[in-house]
Write a structure and sequence with these properties.
By secondary structure, this protein is α+β, with helices and mostly antiparallel strands. It is built from 6 helices and 8 strands. Strands 1-2-3-4-5-6-8-7 form an 8-stranded mixed β-sheet, with helices on both faces.
Length: 182
């Protein structure tokens, strides 16, 4: 993968490599327990255990990190995957096939480093990466609107394409988005 790096104040935002994996895993696991309140779920989070095999090895996948010095303080990941049904609505799984859909995963920033532009910078790097991959036609993501600040952030950078308030049955209250590719 071509290396891209951006500076955001005292932070570096860059493609991850082996030295970032333990710190990235820590950010992700802390988010599952602290922000989501349900902890690690093997059926949803198996990628977190093998970050290298999931994001660094496959050519069309990527992991990005925000660092301050040697500390990983934020993450974003991309992999070839559309939403799965269940738990997501079947219409979305049909609209976003795995072979042409890039999905954003694990966009997390430690609380003490939020509001510094890191999530936006991480997403920008992910969009640059996806744009360079000829197989991808769309960049999809979903979020839990109960997480403080998540939905307003995504509405500022993406287009909502499915909202449980629209009358669809969605047990998890998930809002689904698409990011336009240049």
């Amino acid at each position: 993968m071509q290396q891209h790096r951006h500076s955001v104040g005292p932070y570096d935002v860059q493609a991850a490599d082996q030295r970032h994996l333990d710190g990235a895993r820590s950010v992700m696991l802390d988010t599952f327990y602290r922000d989501f309140g349900y902890g690690y779920r093997p059926d949803w989070h198996q990628d977190v255990i093998d970050l290298g095999g999931t994001y660094l090895t496959p050519e069309h996948h990527a992991l990005f990190v925000a660092t301050k010095g040697d500390e990983v303080v934020g993450t974003t990941a991309v992999r070839a995957a559309g939403p799965k049904s269940p738990p997501h609505p079947r219409v979305l799984a049909q609209r976003y096939p795995d072979d042409t859909t890039a999905q954003l995963f694990r966009v997390y920033v430690r609380p003490e480093h939020r509001r510094c532009g890191l999530a936006r910078a991480l997403v920008d790097l992910a969009v640059e990466f996806v744009t360079r991959q000829p197989r991808y036609r769309v960049l999809y993501l979903h979020t839990d609107p109960r997480i403080d600040g998540a939905e307003p952030f995504w509405r500022s950078v993406a287009t909502p394409i499915h909202d449980p308030c629209d009358g669809y049955d969605d047990t998890y209250q998930t809002v689904h988005f698409e990011i336009a590719l240049p």
